[in-house]
């Protein structure tokens, strides 16, 4: 079985629809066909200030949502990044393999640090991509299911894997990005040219999976659409409608072409009503399942600990080989 690896940050409150459609949905499908490793990346989260109690709660909440979304501990390995110390260890090696200028060109770092200002930007945020490279290479992953915004980090992963292999001999699998065209980028409902994100300018543009279903319905009904009334997929001319069509198509399993056909002669209202219904059908059981996992934190922690143990077996082997190739003397 080919292997996949991916990660998600623990965020306050809930995952958003972009996280789910861009990544988590694929994680669930890939556990059937791949040897799958997924993690909650708490070490990435601390690149910006975190309240300790909230971070702990959000990490468990993230895991609960992933299980509620359909990850199955019998079919995949889900763990918390900090419970596998090899991530930080290989991360250091990757830092030492990366040029300062090369790291400075990472666009997510440039955007985030520009917003925060130099004195509030941590060195951790700067080295974040190299930790992500380590996350992936430790598992010798063949494919990495992510949204479009992670593509540049995946490119860096390939570059560093090849660089290490070229210098020290074949050590790492060079992974590919697994990015589905239709859901690579889910857009903000109020500004359909911007990606949906927690830092949305207008909270109405962001669908949080754990929001009250009624709030979600409202957000869908007030989504920005385009001039004209025709329902057709056209990112350039009809960004808002196209976004709603991709979301509905993915959640309902009906192709975009079939949807265009179905809504011929109908207005935007009909599309929004149907999408709202499909969303409610999705989030209602999702919320219940998430709560059920949260209600039993001991079981949740035990499943995560078992996941970390499985992950660690793989990660430790890769790290030992890497250290050996580098010429580090092992303790006997
Ligand atoms: P994070 O936590 O920001 O996002 C988790 C996943 O959700 C995807 N995503 C989206 N996809 C489509 N449309 C959107 N609007 C949207 N917003 C978010 C992201 O692309 C991502 O796949 N650096 C990563 C976490 C990470 C990781 C890794 C991923 C750490 N180590 C190793 C893969 C492999 C991040 O911050 O994702």
Automatic annotation (TrEMBL):
This is Tryptophan--tRNA ligase. The gene is trpS. Its EC number is 6.1.1.2. It comes from the Bacteria. The keyword Ligase applies. Keywords: Ligase.
């Amino acid at each position: 079985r080919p292997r996949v690896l991916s990660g998600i940050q623990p965020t306050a409150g809930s995952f958003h629809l972009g996280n789910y459609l861009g990544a988590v949905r694929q994680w669930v499908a890939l556990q059937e066909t791949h040897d799958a490793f997924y993690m909650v990346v708490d070490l990435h989260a601390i690149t910006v200030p975190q309240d300790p109690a909230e971070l702990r709660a959000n990490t468990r909440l993230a895991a609960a949502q992933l299980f509620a979304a359909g990850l199955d501990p019998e079919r995949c390995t889900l763990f918390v990044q900090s419970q596998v110390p090899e991530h930080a260890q290989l991360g250091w090696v990757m830092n030492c393999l990366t040029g300062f200028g090369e790291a400075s060109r990472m666009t997510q770092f440039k955007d985030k640090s520009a917003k925060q200002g130099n004195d509030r930007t941590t060195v951790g945020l700067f080295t974040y991509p190299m930790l992500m490279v380590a996350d992936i290479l430790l598992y010798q992953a063949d494919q990495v299911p992510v949204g479009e915004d992670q593509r540049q980090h995946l490119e860096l992963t390939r570059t560093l894997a090849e660089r290490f292999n070229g210098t020290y001999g074949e050590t790492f699998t060079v992974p590919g990005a697994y990015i589905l065209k239709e859901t690579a980028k889910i857009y903000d409902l109020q500004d359909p040219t911007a990606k949906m994100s927690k830092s949305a300018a207008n909270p109405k543009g962001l669908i949080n999976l754990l929001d009250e279903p009624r709030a979600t319905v409202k957000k869908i009904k007030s989504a920005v659409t385009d001039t004209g009334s025709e329902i057709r997929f056209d990112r350039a001319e009809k960004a808002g409608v196209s976004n709603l069509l991709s979301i509905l198509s993915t959640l309902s399993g009906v192709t975009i072409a079939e949807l265009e056909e179905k809504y011929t002669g109908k207005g935007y209202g009909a599309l929004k009503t149907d999408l709202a219904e499909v969303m409610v059908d999705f989030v209602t059981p999702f919320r219940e399942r998430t709560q059920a996992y949260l209600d039993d934190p001991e079981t949740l922690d035990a499943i995560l600990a078992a996941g970390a143990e499985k992950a660690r077996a793989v990660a430790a082997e890769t790290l030992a080989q890497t250290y050996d190739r580098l010429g580090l003397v092992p303790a006997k």
